[in-house]
Write a structure and sequence with these properties.
By secondary structure, this protein is α/β, with parallel strands linked by helices. Helix content is 29%, strand content 24%. Strands 3, 4, 5, 6, 7, 14 and 15 form a seven-stranded mixed sheet that branches. It has a six-stranded parallel sheet with strand order 10-9-8-11-12-13, with helices on both faces. A two-stranded antiparallel sheet has the order 1-2. Belongs to the zinc-containing alcohol dehydrogenase family.
Length: 347
């Protein structure tokens, strides 16, 4: 089969590799019909996650068709159409029983395209298939459903729920990429008084407006702190969501939060960020961070099928699998191309 192979920082190829095989009775082999590229894939290619081995197939999001299943798989069968979660779950360890699937103790968590071969390929092996896939419902497209594999649960769980957004809050999202836009979508469900998007790209700020941001701030020419203070009687935001993953954006978030406020870090950081406890401790701030658990996929599926969220709005570019290198070029140069999510299809 063909697959996108990581060969070290800055190096990737679309090449022939062996088809995946079932290793455990709980595995399934999925024919990948639709996949995409995540910001985390770009972090891997930058060298931010040195634990990723050379030769790894990248990718952790897919819609596909079940080819075959292991002897213990009960919930899906050959021919079924499924959503592949970016997080795999054994279903019975301490953390899985708490719905903290990202911390699975038995070989699950975020492993696709990280610890094991991923979804940017013609076929993929899915461990713990009963707990790590969802049957495709009627009435939604593959493209819409693909957004539930990672970005929408990540923005909702790690940003909105962990940040404890409540009605009337002023919410600031720093970073208007796909996950930041997902945090805007999730925040709007809780009737905040203001949703403010901060980014350095006017094109992404235009997207943030379309997704429901009331106010947009380009921090290359505007002062986010002054604007947020003016909107909040000089207090600061109730919830600040970091959706970039750089020291500068994290430190900006700590400045934007009001005393007693909440900072929810979503961004994947590849370098240390300074935590100024000497000035933060007295402000009663809560800082949360984490890997998505994907426990919200069933909820988001209901919202998607009833048209309460518009997952299709994330999609800006389409490519075929054999053009995946061009898809990477578009996604990596989003400031120029306007790419949010690129959809890569088999045919």
């Amino acid at each position: 089969m063909k697959a996108l192979i990581y060969h070290g920082p800055g190096m990737k190829t679309w090449e022939d590799v062996a088809d995946p095989e079932i290793h455990e009775d709980t595995d399934a082999i999925i024919r990948v019909d639709t996949t995409t590229i995540c910001g985390t894939d770009l972090h891997i290619l930058k060298g931010d996650t040195p634990e990723v081995a050379k030769g790894r197939i990248l990718g952790h999001e897919a819609i596909g068709t079940v080819e075959r299943v292991g002897a213990q798989v009960k919930n899906i069968a050959a021919g079924d159409r499924v959503l592949v979660s970016c997080v795999s779950a054994c279903g019975h360890c301490r953390y899985c029983r708490e719905a903290r699937f990202g911390q699975c103790l038995n070989g699950g968590g975020w492993i696709l395209g990280y610890m094991i071969d991923g979804t940017q390929a013609e076929y993929v092996r899915i461990p713990f298939a009963d707990n790590s896939t969802y049957l495709v419902p009627e009435g939604v497209t593959d493209e819409e459903l693909l957004m539930l594999s990672d970005i929408l649960p990540t923005g909702y769980e790690v940003g909105v729920l962990s940040g404890k957004v409540t009605p009337g809050d002023t919410v600031v999202i720093v970073g208007a990429g796909p996950v930041g836009l997902s945090a805007i979508t999730g925040s709007r469900m809780y009737s905040p008084s203001h949703v403010i998007a901060v980014d350095m790209s006017d094109r992404r700020l235009e997207a943030a407006k379309a997704f429901g941001a009331d106010i947009t701030i380009n921090n290359t020419r505007e002062d986010p702190l002054a604007i947020v203070k003016d909107l909040t009687d000089q207090l600061g935001a109730d919830v600040v969501i970091e959706a970039v993953g750089t020291p500068a954006t994290f430190e900006l978030c700590t400045q934007l939060a009001r005393p007693g406020g909440h900072i929810a870090n979503i961004g994947v950081h590849g370098a240390p960020a300074t935590l100024h406890l000497e000035s933060l401790w007295i402000r009663d701030l809560t800082i949360t961070m984490g890997l998505v658990d994907t426990f919200s996929i069933p909820t988001l599926l209901r919202l998607l099928t009833t048209k309460q969220i518009d997952a299709g709005a994330f999609i800006t570019h389409h490519f075929k699998m054999n053009d995946i290198m061009a898809a990477y070029d578009a996604f990596q140069n989003a400031a120029d191309t306007g790419a949010l999510k690129v959809v890569i299809t088999r045919q």
